[in-house]
Amino acid sequence: MARTVFVLTAAIALTASIAWADEAGDAKALANAWNRIKRLNTAAAQAMPDANYAFKPAPEVRSFGEIVGHLANEHYMICSDVKGAANPQKTVDFEKKTTKAELVKALNDSYAYCEGVAPKDEKTFANLLVNVTHDSEHYGNLVTYMRMKGIVPPSSQPSR
After folding, report:
1. Which residue, 143, 131, 15, is CA-closest to 71?
2. Computed over its alpha carbons, how large is the radius of gyration of the chain?
3. CA 22/CA 154 separation, integer angstroms
4. Among 16-30, 55-69, 70-84, 117-131, which is the least confidently predicted range?
5. In the predicted model, is pLDDT for residue 10 greater than 80?
6. Which pLDDT tens digit goes with each residue over 87-110?
7. How far apart are CA 157 and CA 61, in angstroms?
8. In a 10 Å sphere around its CB, with 0-12 CB exposed, 13-18 middle and 19+ buried, how is residue 52 labelled?
9. What pLDDT score does 27 carry?
């Protein structure tokens, strides 16, 4: 089911990217969306106590930490493709890391790897849009896990 949702999301993102790729502000809008979700996911990873990184609301879903690791894996995969480079972390599965320190570092490093990556054409625009969409989808998971543990997620924090 999750793969079907991801494939459908990717198809929608590709269709949207083709329609929007020629408009002047799209790269900036994409960068703004990326920076926002990057900030939220990073803050969520920081806010969850280390003891709750193994938390799963049900046995068949990823733990909080596995979601954070999954995001890091995907960032390297997508951004290396957009860069036209080999994935520098291809042999590492960050979902297998278990401590908050390891996972926060992996997430931050993956965001740093994607820093400055910009769409060059419709394909790279679509890939980066999938990256934003994918991160947003999993931020929703992180929010749910945080709420279940009594933690107010970053997007619900007062802005002052």
Report:
1. 131
2. 16
3. 33
4. 16-30
5. no
6. 999 999 999 999 999 999 999 999
7. 26
8. middle
9. 87
